[in-house]
Hints:
The complex is a heterodimer of chains A (259) and B (252).
Chain A: H1 2-32, H2 39-78, H3 85-123, H4 126-132, H5 137-175, H6 180-190, H7 193-219, H8 224-258
Helix pairs in contact in A: 2-3, 2-5, 3-5, 3-6, 3-7, 3-8, 5-7, 7-8
Chain B: E1 13-22, E2 25-35, E3 40-45, H1 51-58, E4 66-71, E5 74-75, H2 81-88, E6 91-94, H3 106-117, H4 127-137, H5 153-165, E7 171-175, H6 183-200, E8 203-208, H7 211-217, E9 220-225, E10 228-233, H8 235-239, H9 244-251
Parallel strand pairs in B: 3-8, 3-9, 6-7, 7-8
Antiparallel strand pairs in B: 1-2, 1-4, 4-5, 9-10
Helix pairs in contact in B: 3-4, 3-5, 4-5
Amino acid sequence: MVEGNTIWSRTRLFFEEAGGMVYFTSRFFREVFKPPFEFKELLRQCYYMGNKSLLLVAVTGFILGLVFTLQSRPTLMEFGAESWMPSMVSISIVREIGPVIIALICAGRIGSGIGAELGSMRVTEQIDAMEVSGTNPFKYLVVTRIVATTLMLPLLIIVGDAIALFGSAIIENLKGEVSFLLYFNQVFDALRFADVIPATVKSFFFGFAIGLVGCYKGYYCTNGTVGVGEASNAAVVYTSMLLFVIDFIAVFVTDIFFG
Amino acid sequence: MMENNSGNKVPILEIKDLKKSFKDNSVLNGFNLNLYKGENLVVMGKSGSGKSVMIKCLVGLMQADSGTIRIKEQDIEILGREELDLLRTHIGFLFQGSALYDSMTVRENLEFPLRRHKKELHLKQDTEVLVREALKNVGLEDTLDLMPSELSGGMQRRIALARALILKPEIILYDEPTTGLDPITSKEIIQLMRNIQATYNTSSLIITHDMDCARVISNRMILLVDGVNYAEGTYSELSRSKDPKVQAFFKN
């Protein structure tokens, strides 16, 4: 009986959460095109999310490129296929590994930050204070953050991919004596629009998911400071799961159109 | 005083038969209130008696289950988002925890309500002048570029009061204005509230359980017990009451 209740309450909670998220998303689309527009806050958020995440993304991308190349080299050498290294690395990183890893890093860096910031604003009544001062807090806090993550994540992913390829080129240059010019010639020969465009399009969805879940968890935060921690944690966990779901759908759709 | 055609006083803020419950817990069971122009009305009640719920229903932060709330003769339940936002500019709200935006400086905190509503309210002065005037009213002109975290609790409360005043509202709602402050700072805040009322002829609704605050500032008091108006009158009338429930407030 207890188990039945638990399953029932968890199922109910899941559907409540899903319903809340759908309502939140629909409210975002209702508000985003309606004036007044908070351009100043949008730019501030873009700067905060883009600029302040750049170093983390750059380091992650660089190490990703180094490690991926180091790990793949021996296997390719066994088959005498080390000349395929630039093509393999570039396609893997641009199509899949780069966007997913960088989005996961940003879910931790940006998503948890949004969840914690809005959560603490909620429990200290700052969101209520905005509301009673006649400002729409949803527009000021939520819309700007979701638009900023949607715009900034593709840029961060492009930068991260480029740095990952640069890291890979360094290993190839040191271990395989391949010049940077030759390496990047092979990279651009291997990459097609069918690799770059779907990856870029899906990175917009990744950014949207990070902003949406972070804002949703933070905006409806309850239970004081404990709730803030929970909102921040839930923002990362839910976003990470959602990123893989979006990735699966994106790969599926890409396969239909470009496969 | 606002008067209708028949010469009767019209309240600037009116609550009729307000009911609100959370699941099985009934908090407000038909609360009534009239606040008139230039009046300081204190609502007292024990912790958990629904004072904060009432004040949140009043500004549309919470939805009441039933009842009517009219502010400046407008029923807030039927107002759209933009109309409600515009009405809210006539109301200043001092939150219990000050609720200053902690990512903004004092200047930005005070400018925040102005950026959207300055034109609508026909405030012709420059934003900088309005900000400095509001800070001068609370005696903190030098804090302009400080962050809220650099201010003491009492200073934060004063800045929050300055922010509540910046749009020159007709009604000010105070949610526990002296809670968490030492007795000296409490007295300073109470004095500040009196000065503001005298300068701007605002109508104030004060939620408190600080009897000193009630004694000094109230023109009239309502005691909220079990979600209804239990007793109503001036401080001296209520303090002479023989009712044990009323006496309990004054003994404490």
